[in-house]
Write a structure and sequence with these properties.
The complex is a heterodimer of chains A (121) and B (597).
Chain A (H helix, E strand, L loop, with lengths): L4 H15 L8 E6 L2 H6 L1 H14 L5 E6 L11 E4 L6 E3 L4 H13 L13
Parallel strand pairs in A: 1-2
Antiparallel strand pairs in A: 1-3, 3-4
Helix pairs in contact in A: 3-4
Chain B lengths: L5 E6 L2 H5 L2 H14 L6 E6 L11 E4 L3 E3 L7 H10 L25 H4 L17 H6 L4 H9 L2 H11 L11 H10 L6 E6 L8 H8 L1 H15 L3 E7 L3 H16 L4 E4 L4 E10 L8 H8 L23 E5 H5 L1 H7 L1 H5 L9 E8 L5 E6 L4 H8 L9 E6 L5 E4 L9 H6 L8 E6 L4 H15 L5 H18 L7 H15 L3 H5 L2 H20 L13 E3 L9 H5 L5 E2 L7 E2 L9 H5 L5 E3 L1
Parallel strand pairs in B: 1-2, 5-6, 5-9, 6-8, 10-14
Antiparallel strand pairs in B: 1-3, 3-4, 7-8, 10-11, 12-13, 12-14, 15-18, 16-17
The chains are: A alpha+beta (121), B alpha/beta (597).
């Protein structure tokens, strides 16, 4: 039973987070490589870890999507973090644990995890 | 509520349901489970997205990719490509008809660019069977605000200031109606939602109720507080089963959450809503007939005054508002009357929902700001006329309205402008006609409808429309007489002036407006015994052009009544006595040697 406007607003804010994905591509995006190469190297588990970490931390303004093979198969699983107005950062050779750290450091604290980014070839 | 990385919205409106969205959703659920994606991806059933012609429609968020005419067989590929690999499945994407370009996101589609969705703000975005999703879109905030911060007079003042006018057809100022009901003396008052949508080809209210039932419930409670009523009824036709089911679910959920019932928001205000199912009589959309039907009596209108605001349901003061009118109320309360009044034209504020039907590419549901021109609606939103044919006229207001010919394509769509060109806004039916439409036949169609739906209480409507219909039938059969046009006009005037209710008073409108703009077609039927559009069968004849006919004999084989005779390699001939004018031969002739005259 909702007995006050405050209570209604609380429910609204809670559900709003869960339906935010329908507002489309705004804000930060995490793109996981999900070509055959990515999936066989463990991208599925990386994706699950990212989603779980975002859920745990109640982060609702990040869009998680996937993409196909970008030709960098050797470095899979890889993942892009794209923050509005900033350069795209590509992380390579990820594991679920590494991916969680990227969420904490890059998404939450705004610091790029230098040791995981793509080597300059 | 759980978080998912992607939401897949499947349209569950009547249009998409009948083109098969239920098996598509089942296949989707199964396939997602198979790929172990059910913790990441959520499938949501939603309301009408408007492009009914292309159903079943699926939208995948966050990308906003809109997939059209999806079948269960498409689902494994769609899941594999889009949801597993993250590649948009181009094959099923929405394609702009004009340019053949595929649109990667719903935000890029021309059909939506000129629209402004206020009444339909949640349709196709929320799951109508989950109250939390409505709440997430500021649902019931307006009711909370009204009950905790405003007096009933302030609410009425706000609605008056917004300039909102009734969307059911007549366009009466909503705030005034609320004020009359508030001021009426009575110990018991009622709020009634008129969901008895009946115009041929119109489905605005059905879609609004199916896609967002709570917005109507919330608005009814607000109206109840404003006029001093504690009981509401929704009068809806039983032939809208999906809308009825979703309303039942919505009412139950709202009661469970305490948003309907006793002491809402701890304010001491009580409000309950019940459904009343109608049997689908057109006249029951007329408010006094509707009231009679709710009371369990035969659905017949009575003279006004007294108006329902003073003597309505069971003789008590009653506020009757249409579905779309009500759906506009919560955003007006939350965004303020100035916001609403800033949209539209001087005397027609806000938006209007139209059910676009007939000879137009994007048939479906659209909501446009008042003042949008007919040309924009037909060509930019509607995507133009199929097969490159010419626009002939648009019928607005259904059987009570009139047609707007090509010369008035630039008329702004608002209450006054439509009246000026001889039509009405009506409840939102919009039937587009192309060059192959016979206007006498159209007038006959609408008159057949009103004649069939006439309740029979008053003679002008019961007998007058019958006589008019007989004359029209005569004309389309090639038996029209010189005085028929004059007779039609006299009868029309008399019926307009003397019928009891709006159904009868407006029944002659389609005849009068087609006479105004397409008089030459009536004259051709009567004087020359010809139907210029080639529709009225009795006035048609088929002829084989001897100089073109190669004598292949195909037409003779296709003729179902053996009316075509001839020798191979020499011109064939049609026996006019035997010919039933089915047009089979014309369609089949490989040399275009057959003409329809």
């Amino acid at each position: 039973m909702i007995k006050s406007l405050e209570e209604l607003k609380r429910i609204r804010d809670e559900v709003k987070k869960a339906t935010k994905v329908r507002e489309g591509m705004k804000g930060t995006r995490i793109v996981v490589g999900m070509g055959t190469c990515g999936i066989s190297a463990g991208a599925r588990e990386v994706m699950s870890a990212v989603l779980d970490e975002l859920r745990k931390r109640d982060i609702d303004d990040v869009v998680v999507t996937q993409t196909g093979c970008i030709g960098f198969c050797k470095y899979e699983p890889l993942m892009d973090v794209i923050k509005p107005g900033e350069e795209k950062v590509t992380y390579v050779n990820l594991t679920p644990e590494k991916a969680r750290r990227v969420v904490v450091e890059h998404i939450v604290n705004g610091r790029v995890v230098k040791e995981y980014i793509v080597p300059n070839l | 509520m759980e978080m998912y990385r992607s939401h897949v919205l499947v349209c569950g409106g009547t249009g998409c349901t009948s083109s098969g969205s239920v098996p598509v959703q089942e296949a989707l659920n199964k396939e997602i489970k198979k790929h172990n994606l059910d913790k990441e991806i959520k499938v949501v059933q939603t309301g009408c997205l408007g492009l009914c012609e292309l159903g079943p429609i699926i939208i995948v968020y966050p990308e906003g990719s809109m997939y059209c005419q999806v079948t269960p067989e498409d689902i494994p590929e769609l899941v594999e490509e889009h949801l597993v690999k993250g590649r948009i499945l181009e094959r099923l994407l929405y394609k702009e008809k004009a340019t053949d370009e595929k649109a990667c996101s719903i935000t890029e589609i021309d059909f939506y660019k000129k629209q402004k969705r206020i009444a339909l703000r949640n349709c196709g975005i929320i799951n109508p069977e989950v109250i939390e999703e409505y709440i997430a879109r500021d649902g019931y905030q307006a009711l909370g605000k009204v009950l905790t911060e405003m007096t009933p007079e302030e609410v009425i003042e706000m609605v008056k200031k917004s300039g909102l006018r009734g969307r059911g057809g007549a366009g009466f100022p909503t705030g005034l109606k609320w004020e009359f009901t508030r001021k009426a003396k009575g110990d018991q008052k009622y709020v009634v939602c008129n969901a008895d949508e009946g115009d041929p080809g119109a489905f605005m209210d059905r879609s609004a109720l199916e896609g967002d039932p709570h917005s109507v419930l919330e608005a009814m409670a607000i109206a109840g507080y404003a006029v001093g009523a504690n009981q509401g009824y929704i009068y809806i036709r039983a032939e809208y089963p999906i809308a009825v089911k979703r309303l039942e679910i919505a009412i139950e959920q709202a009661k469970k959450m305490g948003l309907l019932g006793k002491n809402i928001f701890g304010s001491g205000f009580n409000f309950d809503i019940e459904l009343r199912l109608g049997a689908g009589a057109f006249v029951c959309g007329e408010e006094t007939a509707l009231i009679a039907s709710i009371e369990g009596k035969r659905g017949e209108p009575r003279p006004k005054p007294p108006f329902p605001a003073n003597e309505g349901l069971w003789g008590k003061p009653t506020l009757i508002n249409n579905v779309e009118t009500l759906a506009n109320i919560p955003p007006i309360i939350l965004n303020g009357p100035e916001w609403f009044a800033s949209i539209g034209t001087e005397n027609s504020k806000g938006t209007k929902v139209f059910a676009l039907a007939g000879k137009v590419n994007n048939t479906g549901l659209v909501e446009i700001p008042m003042g949008t021109t007919l040309r924009e609606l037909v060509y930019e939103i509607g995507g133009g006329i199929p097969e490159g044919k010419k626009f002939k006229a648009a019928q607005t207001g259904g059987p009570s309205g009139g047609c707007i010919p090509a010369e008035h394509l630039d008329v702004p769509i608002d209450f006054e402008s439509l009246k000026k060109v001889g039509s009405i806004m009506g409840s939102g039916g919009m039937i587009i006609m192309d060059e192959d439409t016979c206007m006498v036949d159209i007038a006959k169609f609408f008159l057949e409808f009103t004649q069939d739906e006439s309740c029979g209480k008053c003679p002008p409507c019961r007998i007058g429309t019958k006589r008019m219909l007989e004359i029209l039938e005569r004309i389309t059969l090639g038996k029209g007489e010189k005085e028929d046009i004059k007779k039609l006009e006299t009868l029309a005037k008399n019926i307009q002036n003397s019928a009891l209710c709006a159904l009868g008073q407006t029944a002659p409108n389609p005849v009068l407006s087609t006479l105004r703009y397409f008089r030459d077609e009536y004259e051709a039927h009567i004087n020359d015994k010809k139907c210029p559009a080639g529709v009225c069968q009795a006035l048609l004849s088929f002829r084989i052009k001897e100089e073109v006919c190669k004598g292949c004999g195909l037409c003779a084989r296709e003729c179902p009544v053996d009316a075509i005779k001839g020798e191979k390699r020499s011109p064939y001939q049609i026996d006019q006595e035997k010919c039933i004018k089915c047009g089979n031969c014309l369609e089949k002739c490989p040399f275009d040697a057959i003409v329809r005259e």
